[in-house]
Design brief:
CATH class: Alpha Beta
Order of helices and strands: EHEHEHHHEEHEEEHEEHHH
Largest sheet: 5 strands, mixed
Shape: globular
Number of helices: 10
CATH superfamily: Metallo-dependent phosphatases
Number of domains: 1
Helix content: 25-40%
Radius of gyration: 18 Å
Strand order of the largest sheet: 3-2-1-9-10
Distance between the termini: 41 Å
């Protein structure tokens, strides 16, 4: 069976349509979405509808939850965050919000002997960033079960989204994979004098795995493939005049950088990495 896995669409309809078109031409059997369908772009409603139509499994991302739920303490939040919540909620119907709030946290299956576990960010919460440069111990925790995982077994393959930065790592005979972002791809390690063409980053990213679905037999093959798809960024931005975060969103999808690189640098410094020196 061939399974396509997508994540972090963030209201980018053009990126999602191009990704779905690419997936369909590859004769994929199932599509799984790891969440964050909404927020950032203006096409949240359309993206929800297309995801519901095309995906066999849909998990909940932190933005799906955060921008759909009722915040009883919203008056205590910063004014800009209050605006972001109210604006994102105005883009979708109450039915959409209820749908997003009821999405599952985790999904699991066996493929070619491996227990594959999928979630948006970590097995405990949907809003913590586990980076490619995190410690071995931090990465190991990603394979361990929690009260939110489907089973209490240790996973062999973990696939997640959230950080918008695709990579694959091998530790303790296990495989950790981040599939990147369909609608909001960026690279956190950037240097003007060393960077390649920005189109290496700003395409829509997704992932395909292929193997013997449901099998606990390790003797059959399994494969992993990262795919990046070009899409019409300028067309996506045509409707962004109504976006209260137009400048930030435009910057991210055109430059392949996170809107708050200071925050990124702080995360890396926590890990002993000085971005300014690499």
């Amino acid at each position: 069976m061939k399974i396509a896995i997508i994540s972090d669409v963030h209201g980018n309809l053009e990126a999602l349509k191009s990704t779905i078109k690419d997936i369909e031409k590859r004769n994929v059997d199932r599509i799984i979405c790891l969440g964050d369908i909404i927020a950032k772009g203006v096409h949240s409603k359309e993206c929800i509808a297309l995801i519901k139509e095309k995906c066999d499994v849909i998990l909940q991302g932190n933005c799906d939850e955060h921008f759909s739920k009722v915040h009883e303490n919203i008056s205590d939040m910063l004014e800009q965050e209050q605006k972001r919540i109210k604006w994102n909620q105005s883009l979708i119907a109450m039915e959409d919000r209820k749908y997003l709030l009821n999405l599952p946290f985790c999904y699991e299956f066996y493929m070619s002997g491996s227990l594959v576990r999928l979630f948006h960010a970590t097995p405990k919460v949907n809003n913590k960033a586990i980076l490619n440069v995190d410690s071995i111990d931090t990465k190991y925790q990603m394979f361990l079960p929690t009260e939110k995982t489907v089973t209490q077994n240790v996973a062999d393959v973990v696939i997640y989204g959230h950080i918008h930065h695709p990579y694959m790592d091998k530790i303790y005979n296990k495989t950790l994979i981040n599939i990147g972002s369909v609608g909001n791809s960026f690279d956190v390690i950037r240097n003007d004098s060393k960077d390649s063409n920005v189109l290496e980053t700003t395409k829509a990213y997704y992932f395909i795995m292929e193997g013997d679905y449901g099998s606990k037999d390790y003797t059959s093959e399994i494969s992993f493939q990262f795919i990046r798809v070009p899409y019409n960024i300028e067309k996506e931005l045509q409707d962004e005049n109504i976006n209260i975060e137009k400048e930030n969103y435009t910057f991210e999808i055109k430059e392949g950088k996170y809107r708050d690189m200071t925050r990124i640098n702080e995360n890396f410094k926590r890990l002993g990495v000085d971005i300014d020196k690499i």
